[in-house]
Specification:
single chain; alpha/beta; Rossmann fold; seven-stranded mixed β-sheet; 9 helices; globular
């Protein structure tokens, strides 16, 4: 079986969903600019450098949802998709997904960003399968602002992938697996794939790719 894994942020998307979400909320007045904006910028930089812990990263962004239900957020989520996300999906990224789909591959989007703000993007790109960081919801139906379960980041992406495959009676070793990502944070996932491909890689991943002879791809040119 051919299994193809796509990271989202800075891979299929020319930008970072979490950072774009926060910027969108700031413009909408849903977050306090003075207190949040500097922390948001610092978190993005730490992620790109691979220096932030998965828990700190995921909890920081999931905390933006706290105190509201999915229904409360829906209008803003739809606006975010159409205003911020869709214009940043390059034609080359869409074409790459379609080539793998036409070849009959099992396609999976796997992202550290939380499911609530990425599931619409996955649907727009035609992904039936999404592995993402999950958000805790309280008994009152509102997001608590905390993550739930294993974080889908760094080694967690590999753990979550193995669990996802096992639930379908599959094992990674039996799959002809291709993985696309831009980030040093996805080095464990790329190493686990038979065919790793780096997409517009950050500096650390570019160095790893050069050392390992991994192919590079530019989807944002």
């Amino acid at each position: 079986m051919k299994l193809t894994l796509f990271d989202l942020d800075h891979t299929l998307l020319a930008g970072d969903s979490d950072v774009l979400w926060c910027s969108f909320l700031l413009r909408q007045g849903a977050l306090d600019r003075a207190s949040f904006e500097p922390r948001n910028a610092a978190m993005e930089a730490a992620y790109r450098a691979g220096s932030v812990s998965p828990r700190a990263f995921c909890d920081f962004y999931v905390s933006t949802l706290a105190g509201r239900s999915a229904a409360d957020w829906e209008a803003l989520r739809q606006g975010f998709l159409h205003d911020e996300i869709l214009p940043r999906i390059p034609a080359a990224a869409r074409a790459l997904v379609e080539r793998h789909r036409a070849a009959g591959d099992l396609l999976v989007m796997t992202t550290a960003t939380n499911r609530f703000i990425t599931e619409l993007t996955a649907a727009q790109l035609g992904f039936e399968h999404l592995i993402a960081t999950d958000c805790e919801v309280g008994h009152d139906g509102r997001f608590t602002g905390r993550t739930l379960g294993t974080l889908n980041m760094r080694e967690g992406k590999v753990e979550r992938l193995h669990a996802w495959l096992a639930a379908r009676g599959l094992v990674l070793a039996d799959c002809d697996c291709t993985a696309y990502s831009d980030s040093i944070n996805d080095l464990p996932l790329l190493r686990a794939a038979a065919h790793p491909v780096v997409v517009n890689p950050d500096a650390r991943l570019a160095a790893e790719a050069d050392a390992r002879g991994w192919p590079r791809l530019d989807l944002h040119g």
